Amino acid sequence: MDKTIFTKSHRDLVSRLIKARKQARLKQIDVARKLGRTQSYISKIEAGQRRIDTVQLKEFAAIYKKKISFFIK
To answer: Residue 57: which CATH number?
Structure first.
């Protein structure tokens, strides 16, 4: 079985995270600051190199002002 970060579901989630960030007119560094993380942390998530859990997804949703369902269609 493929690792989760290589599945279509994960790629779709990453695409939606990027789309939501751009719709919110935020840069990676802006999101990183809001989360208390580094820009490279956000970059790795958006590059599909790092997984996020449900708690982190809720944090992203709040920053982007999106419902969780936006990310997991």
So the answer is: 1.10.260.40
